[in-house]
Specification:
It is a single chain. The chain is mainly alpha-helical. The chain has a domain at 86-171. Helices cover 42% and strands 10% of the residues.
Length: 186
């Protein structure tokens, strides 16, 4: 028997619950085994802080229940940076969706340079990122992902893929204040 939360593979907000009061728009995300990345747009003042608190509490409760543990899951508070330009948003999108997933690619990021097409497909099919939602127009969770901002940055998938490839070719990886060092123009 299917629950009211999952009808036909689509998440459904139960009618008896109060109307959602969104705090943020989720622009992009990647969840890895030991950390995560979000690109969020605040809707309400203090929304990002409240969202991150709820997310961290939920993750901790889920982990502790599943593994019969108690206590904190995360070492410290989350780290945040303000996106202050369209150019930074473009590179951040590649960092969240591409670089983080390519690190998981068999053979690592160095192999990606020689197998970009296979690595790109690997990234699209990685189940814990919003990249596949954009590329495949995945309706299952599209309601919770706000793609308008990124759709404004890239005309189509081919433009994004070309930009991502150029970034990967330029990375080899000097750390900067934003955690990655891309050229200003690619």
């Amino acid at each position: 028997m299917k629950s009211d939360f999952n009808k036909g593979g689509v998440l459904v907000w139960p009618s008896e619950w109060p109307e959602r009061d969104r705090l943020v728009d989720i622009i992009a995300f990647t969840l890895k085994d030991n950390h995560y990345h979000f690109v969020l747009q605040e809707i309400k003042e203090g929304g990002i802080t409240k969202f991150m608190h709820k997310f961290g509490t939920g993750m901790t409760n889920r982990f502790n229940t599943r593994h019969k543990e108690t206590g904190r899951l995360f070492q410290g508070s989350y780290k945040a940076r303000r996106v202050d330009s369209d150019n930074y948003l473009k590179y951040l999108n590649v960092y969240v969706h591409i670089k983080n997933i390519f690190e998981l690619y068999p053979g690592g990021i160095e192999r990606v340079l020689y197998e970009f097409e296979d690595a790109y497909q690997f990234a699209i099919h990685y189940p814990y990122t919003s990249l596949g939602i954009y590329i495949n127009n995945n309706q299952k969770i599209k309601e919770i992902i706000s793609s308008d901002i990124l759709n404004d940055e890239f005309a189509d998938e081919q433009e994004f893929k070309k930009f991502a490839r150029a970034c990967v070719e330029h990375i080899f990886f000097e750390e900067s204040s934003c955690g990655f060092n891309f050229p200003v123009e690619v």
